[in-house]
Specification:
Protein name (chain A): Thiamine pyrophosphate-dependent dehydrogenase E1 component subunit alpha
Number of strands of chain B: 14
Shape of chain B: globular
Shape of chain A: globular
Distance between the termini of chain B: 45 Å
Oligomer: heterodimer
InterPro entries (chain A): DH_E1, PDH_E1_Alpha_Subunit, THDP-binding
Keywords (chain A): Oxidoreductase, Thiamine pyrophosphate
Largest interface: A-B, 47 and 44 residues
GO molecular function (chain A): magnesium ion binding; pyruvate dehydrogenase (acetyl-transferring) activity
Radius of gyration of chain A: 19 Å
Bound molecules: thiamine diphosphate
Number of helices of chain A: 12
Helix content of chain A: 40-55%
Cofactor (chain A): thiamine diphosphate
Number of helices of chain B: 12
Largest sheet of chain B: 7 strands, mixed
């Protein structure tokens, strides 16, 4: 990618922010069933990382995946339709919030099993490079995932076979309610060091810093440098999941949340723009989201008779469960 | 006529598919030196980029294969022992199997999981002797258990060409079977075969037990006319072929080297009785509920379905009604 594009980065963080806020409204309105894992506060990470990737590069994300999918270029309207379970959604209403995928823009999927996506991305990037494509990939995971064995196995495979995968740890301080200090022995960077992978810590609240660190890593990876890890220090402003809006779990001191909210990626990036540029981006994002909400709610619900469509890519049909 | 061993049939299938299709590659533990005797000669022929020794990290390399498949490759993973499938059940079921539906049809995950030496290899005891095909049939992953060298070849070829994940169980008890094979050809997934026609009872036998069922049928030939049905693929199952057989014989016995509760034998019986009135209650010969194979050879054998049990089940079924 070329140099920093402050307005472009701002647009992405603003888009994710407003997407999440509108999605929470739709959860409250009962239009999104099952709730969502809000990405509020962490927008700078997805925006910065994806700004340093090319359109053909690959990404995998997590249960908190809306930001990853949007930042990589998925259509917000089809994404929102997916969350609402409509046939017009990215996954035709079969995936929902935690599985949103858009292979057309290189998003191999949000993944709801913690720690699972790193190995998948490693295999995908490896296979594409074996075919001669100059791709790299980025896989997002939380601080909770660094204790999952499969992710550490994936570190080993990527490092051993020099697969250009950026392992992006979004360290938001908590795995659901478990603080990182109570869960991670050693350090997150130390996990990378054990496999001979370079690791860089970055302020995840600053989209430009994330972009710069990622761009440098991507340049080294494209030059044959093997995988790297970025630990983006961030914070989720909101609940682990929207169910928390109802149950009020007590695990974060309110002053901690308040202090973290003052370091808001949307404001940090917005302050870099002239007021009129910022206002224009805001207006454009607002219009995009208004159209997205209309599109999502207008989409038809899938026909129950098609519930098993796409179960098999080979065309196999399954016996049904009735009588 | 050339004699072909089951194990060599698997090698031939891998070699032929790798030659035919550049996107096929192999990964697994110690496969470059062919420690399991299946990948013999393939490193020399195809090089280390296509015959990939993996570190001992089953969960990661299983999902690595999922990713490679999403990116257009056709990986074949060889597992050193059947019980490793418990370790990677999550990766196969939660990811490889679910991706096409969860993405609304955006992708296919054509991975083949090859398990040479499934079931008991005498003396390998509790953690090396499982035969977990029923688990994969239960979750709806295409599950293949060939009995003969020609089927081992033909079903593995079809598995590799299939756009969905397929688990191929090569039972330890069948690996050393040899047969005269004239022409090797793909065998369609989901199509069973009558191995021996008969009139009095249909015996469904899975994998290496096909050979036991044929031997028992031969022993009983003067008294009972036994039809032996080899489903070859447990999921999807050839229900039409089986129902056709049982409609003619009116009796059913299933012999299956996996655990009894929630096993494939129970599913076979349930489906048949949903469709065909039987002249006698159906029977099944299986491992016990919750079986763990004990080490001492006599104990190991005591837990697996045996020919005596099968003979007794057939005789009872024929006597009833
Ligand atoms: C393997 C696995 N274990 C547990 C869960 C339930 N779960 C969902 S999200 C989550 C916390 C994940 O924490 P982290 O990786 O730090 O990501 P964050 O939610 O903070 O973004 C848990 C335990 C799961 N989905 N997968």
């Amino acid at each position: 990618m070329t140099g920093p594009d402050p307005a472009g980065l701002y647009r992405t963080v603003r888009l994710i922010r407003r997407f999440e806020e509108r999605a929470i409204e739709l959860v409250d309105a009962g239009e999104i069933v099952g709730g969502i894992h809000p990405y509020l506060g962490q927008e700078g990470v997805a925006a910065g990382v994806c700004a340093a990737l090319g359109p053909g590069d690959l990404v995998t994300g997590t249960h908190r995946g809306h930001g990853h999918v949007l930042a990589k270029g998925a259509d917000p309207a089809r994404m929102l339709a997916e969350l609402c379970g409509r046939v017009t959604g990215l996954n035709r209403g079969r995936g929902g919030s935690m599985h949103a995928a858009d292979l057309g823009v290189g998003v191999l999927g949000a993944n709801a099993i913690v720690g699972a996506a790193g190995a998948i991305l490693t295999g995908a990037v490896w296979a594409r490079r074996r075919r001669g494509d100059d791709v790299v990939g980025a896989t997002f995971f939380g601080d909770g995932a660094v204790n999952e064995g499969m992710l550490l196995e994936a570190f080993n495979l990527a490092a051993l076979w020099r697969v250009p995968v950026l392992f992006v740890c979004e360290n938001n301080g908590y795995a659901t309610t478990m603080p990182v200090e109570g869960a991670v022995a050693g350090t997150i960077a130390g996990r990378a060091a054990a496999f001979g992978m370079p690791a860089t810590a970055v302020d995840g609240q600053d989209p430009e810093q994330v972009r710069a660190v990622t761009a440098a890593a991507v340049a080294r990876m494209r030059a044959g440098g093997g995988p790297e890890l970025v630990e983006a220090r961030t914070y989720r402003f909101d609940a682990h999941h929207t169910f928390e809006h109802r149950v009020r779990l007590d695990y974060r001191p309110p002053e901690e949340v308040a202090a973290a909210r003052r370091r808001d990626p949307v404001l940090i990036q917005g302050d870099r723009l002239p007021a009129e540029v910022r206002a224009a981006v805001d207006a454009e994002v607002e219009a995009t989201l208004a159209a997205a909400v209309d599109f999502a709610l207008a989409g038809p619900a899938p026909d129950p008779a098609t519930a098993l469509d796409h179960l098999y890519a080979s065309g196999l049909t399954a016996r049904t469960g009735g009588g | 006529m050339p004699r072909l061993s089951y194990r060599r049939a698997l090698t031939r299938a891998l070699a032929d598919e790798m030659t035919r299709d550049e996107s096929v590659f192999l990964l697994g533990e110690d496969i470059r030196v062919a420690a399991a005797g299946v990948t013999t000669g393939l490193l020399k022929k195809f090089g280390p980029e296509r015959v990939l020794d993996t570190p001992l990290s089953e969960q990661a390399f299983t999902s690595f294969a999922t990713g490679a498949a999403l990116a257009g490759a056709r990986p074949v993973i060889e597992f050193q022992i059947p019980s490793l499938l418990f370790l990677v059940f999550e990766q196969i079921v939660n990811h490889a199997h679910k991706f096409p539906l969860m993405t609304g049809g955006q992708c296919a995950v054509p991975v083949t999981y090859l398990v040479p030496g499934s079931g008991s290899r005498t003396g390998w005891a509790g953690q090396h002797s499982d035969h977990p095909y029923g688990l994969f049939a239960h979750v709806g992953v295409t599950t293949v258990v060939p009995a003969t060298p020609a089927d081992a070849y033909g079903l593995l070829v079809s598995a590799i060409r299939c756009d969905d994940p397929v688990v191929v169980f090569a039972p330890a008890g069948a690996l050393d079977v040899r047969a005269d094979v004239t022409d090797l050809a793909p065998v369609p997934l989901g199509r069973g075969v009558v191995r021996r026609p008969g009139a009095d009872v249909t015996v469904v036998a899975v994998g290496h037990l096909v050979h036991d069922a044929l031997a028992v049928a031969e022993e009983l030939a003067g008294q009972v006319s036994v039809e032996v049905f080899d489903p070859r693929t447990l999921y999807p199952f050839d229900w039409d072929g089986l129902l056709d057989s049982v409609s003619r014989t009116g009796r059913l016995v299933v012999v299956d080297d996996s655990n009894r509760s929630c096993g494939i034998a129970g599913e076979i019986i349930a489906t048949v009785v949903e469709h065909v009135p039987l002249a006698a209650p159906p029977r099944r010969v299986t491992r016990p509920d919750g079986a763990v194979l004990p080490f001492a050879p006599a104990l190991d054998r005591a837990v697996q379905p045996g020919r005596d049990q099968l003979t007794a089940a057939i005789q009872l079924t024929v006597k009833d009604g």
